[in-house]
Amino acid sequence: MTGADYSLPMLHVAQQLDCPAVRADAFRLPFADNCFDALVSIRFVFHYADPLAFFAEAYRVLRPGGVLVFDTYNWSPFMFPGVPFRWGGSVFIFRQRQLRQWADTSGFKVGDTTRAFLCSPVVYRHLPAPGVKVFDWLERRLPAAIRNVCFWQWVSRKPSDEGT
To answer: What pTM does this model have?
Structure first.
């Protein structure tokens, strides 16, 4: 396992957790081609209007059949006027059709998708404990299709070198 982040404070956290990590730009990763079985990128993709360069870089460092896991939002609390808190940068909303097209364009096939949270996890951090319990209760009873966060699993369609 290797961690990568551009943020020095996050690299410090990784160091405290005894996780090997390097400072890296996600659009130009300092790793060889085909070197990872999986790449997990949480709370990253939705900060970019056009994440295709990131998907291309993920494809480059993944082995054939390697898995990319990332999350997107179906909506953002920042879309609404009067939201009393802000959180790092812009949040872009991508439709499932667009993400499936990007997967195909980038050399991936879409594997599983999992939906979670009725609203952005940042909202949960601002709720009192009873409010979080209400959301938890609702999430267990309402259809998954209305949940806000979608976790994607894309599988690299890269051809294998086996048999050559």
So the answer is: 0.85
